[in-house]
Write a structure and sequence with these properties.
The protein is an alpha+beta fold. The chain has one domain. It contains 5 helices and 4 strands, in the order ααβββαβαα. A 4-stranded mixed β-sheet has the order 1-3-2-4, with helices on one face. Strand 2 and strand 3 form a beta hairpin. Helix 3 packs across helix 4. The longest helix is centred in the last third of the chain and has 18 residues. The chain is globular and about 40 Å long.
Length: 171
């Protein structure tokens, strides 16, 4: 429990210290995130029928572009949270290291817009068992809070992230 509280505080502080400008949506924050990461970000539709319940994915290319794939068959609010989650991975420079089961969305041609030879790293958003996923979910919640409730962050607004984390563990 103490570790979770510590992670929540760390993520809240991380987002606060980014010094992000006011924005109406996570999409409006992408230029600031690009500036911070030094990489271009492109939004693309997520591959359908991935077989893994995938709602979002981040692919980093050797060419300096970060692709965020988003399930377009979900609500705009959910899409924005997916984008915030993948942006959190970008901001924290998470390195991946885990595959999406036996499916490689690039080499299996589910994502037909990318050449597999340029992909450096890939993270799919489907599971919260790993520290990076937990951290990204908390940062995403704080990014969304920055957008929808500007001003000082007094904490305690991690309920959405905690609910999502709890639901994923129960499955």
């Amino acid at each position: 429990m103490i570790r979770r509280r510590s992670l929540r505080r760390e993520c809240r502080r991380f987002v606060r210290d980014l010094g992000l400008p006011p924005a109406e949506s996570i999409r409006e924050l992408l230029p600031a995130i690009e500036s911070r990461s030094g990489r271009s970000i492109r939004l693309e539709p997520a591959p359908l029928n991935s077989g893994d319940g995938l709602c979002g994915m981040w692919i980093r290319t050797a060419e300096g572009i970060d692709y965020i794939f988003v399930n377009e068959e979900t609500s705009r609010a959910h899409q924005d949270h997916i984008i915030a989650h993948e942006a959190a991975h970008i901001l924290r420079n998470h390195q991946g290291g885990r595959a999406l089961g036996d499916v490689n969305p690039v080499t299996d041609r589910l994502v037909t817009t990318l050449d597999p030879g340029v992909v450096k790293m890939m993270l799919g958003r489907s599971d919260y068992e790993f520290h990076d996923e937990r951290e990204a979910e908390l940062i995403a919640s704080h990014l969304q809070r920055h957008i929808h409730h500007p001003g000082p962050d007094i904490g305690g607004d991690d309920r959405i992230a905690e609910t999502l984390l709890r639901r994923r563990r129960q499955r």
